[in-house]
Design goal:
The protein is α+β, with helices and mostly antiparallel strands. Helix content is about 40%, strand content about 15%. The protein has a single domain, classed as Double Stranded RNA Binding Domain (2-Layer Sandwich), CATH 3.30.160.20. Strands 3-4-5 form a three-stranded antiparallel β-sheet, with helices on one face. A two-stranded antiparallel ribbon has the order 1-2. The termini are far apart.
């Protein structure tokens, strides 16, 4: 079990790990070993996540989420497969942890009387500046 919070745990059987070859420079070592890790987690069908967390996680995941609702994380920063596995798992935990935070409800506020007056005053000043740019009329 992977512990996200005190009340949320994910079963390791829900994660699908796949080792692939890492891209980029690295010489012979990178060409013959599969050190990069691809982590797949089915967000929509996970029994561990509440619905509101699933919704927020799908928004946070962005392009890392497939149309089927599978989150794909790719880790290739280290030359060690185990370190890449830990990195991918830590990124998954961090994403889910961010999804558990409920956004604060926005409270509608009205502008203060003085801020309304200040706005109207600046509008009047600006209108005066602009009207002063017009054509000058000469009295003959």
């Amino acid at each position: 079990m992977i512990e996200i919070t005190s009340w949320l745990r994910i079963d390791e059987d829900e994660l699908v790990w796949k080792a692939t070859r890492a891209s980029g420079p690295g010489g012979q070592h990178v060409n013959k070993t599969s050190t990069a890790i691809e982590l797949r987690f089915d967000v929509r069908n996970s029994p561990a996540l509440p619905e509101d967390v699933k919704t927020r996680l799908e928004k946070l995941a962005g392009s890392r989420l497939t149309q089927d609702g599978v989150l794909i994380l790719f880790a290739q920063g280290s030359r060690s497969q185990e370190m890449n596995r830990q990195d991918a798992q830590a990124r998954l935990v961090e994403l889910i942890l961010r999804a558990t935070e409920r956004p604060k409800a926005r409270k509608a506020t009205k502008p203060t009387y003085s801020s309304k007056l200040k706005r109207l005053e600046t509008k009047t000043k600006r209108a005066g500046v602009k009207s002063g740019r017009g054509r000058v009329k000469f009295d003959d």
